[in-house]
Amino acid sequence: MAADPLGTFLQPDQLEKFKPDFGIFQLVQTETYNEYELAKSIDAIDSKICGAIAVQLAIVGYGNKTYGNVIVDGKVIDIVKYFKQHGVRVDTEFGSKLTPKDITPRRLIRFYRFTIDEYVKSNPNLSTYLFKKYCLNKNEKTRKFIYPGFEHIADPRVDLDKIKDLLDTYSFLDSRLNTKVKDRIIRVLIARGFNEDAIKQVQIQLI
User: Fold this and answer.
1) For residue 198, what are the CA distances in angstroms to 149, 161, 170, 195?
2) 91 and 46: one domain?
3) What's the whole-number mean pLDDT along residues 69-91?
4) What pTM, to 2 d.p., does this model score?
5) Tens digits of per-residue pLDDT, 156-201?
6) 171 near 182, Cβ under 8 Å?
7) Do residues 36 and 61 both lie within one domain?
């Protein structure tokens, strides 16, 4: 057996005896976002109202613990009161511990991402707050995907150009509000399969 030139690392054959039997253990996922569990929580409340609230928050926006109202079947619903009544977590901060069953405003938007996408595309006279206030390249094409939650729909194979506009939008938002939302969006995109080097190249183009 050849000696390790650095003298501090074991060779593969030396490490072999430390390998456990793969049949004796199971991996435990650390991801707390589980849509099967979240779906149960949403069903236990009211999926119709939760969907309406998700669209309202993604399009009209929310912030500073202000969530506004939404009208469902002619009834005005105070969203923050509805959240408190049904245990929706509105008190979370970055790093907050959540269980797979916990509902938050951001998780609602993520869960109803396809509903939001369809609503935006089927209402050509409607623009999201993100598009109206922070998009620097406003046109009919960008109107359709500049909204919270698109990062969970974007296709790594074909949507890199859209991601450039999305990150540009969040860069402007962060500069105005002194936030770091773009960093979170990038983490989501990379986790979903976007090439990290391609994302970095997009960021260089935005500078």
Assistant:
1) 20, 11, 17, 5
2) yes
3) 95
4) 0.82
5) 999 999 999 999 999 999 999 999 999 999 999 999 999 888 888 8
6) yes
7) yes
Q: What is the DSSP letter of 18?
A: G
Among the listed residues 113, 94, 104, the one whose alpha carbon sits nearest the alpha carbon of residue 41 = 104
Within a domain: residue 16? no
Residue 102 in domain = yes
Q: In this structure, is residue 48 part of a structural domain? A: yes
Q: From the centroid of its chain, how far is CA 151?
A: 6
Q: Are residues 117 and 198 in the same domain?
A: no
> How far, in Å, are 19, 21, 25, 32, 96 from residue 28 at the CA level?
19, 17, 10, 11, 20
Adjacent-strand bridge partners of 6? none
d(CA 102, CA 111): 12
Going by the DSSP 8-state scheme, the letter that residue 129 receives in this structure is H
Range of the domain at 189: 127-207
My answer on whether 132 and 114 are in the same domain is no
Count structural domains, the chain. 2
The residue written with tokens 């500069």 in the block is 175
Sequence-separated (6 or more) residues with CB below 8 Å from residue 8: none
Name beta bridge partners: 72: 75
Domain membership of residue 23 (yes or no) is no
Nearest C-alpha neighbor of 105 from the set 153, 38, 20, 30: 38
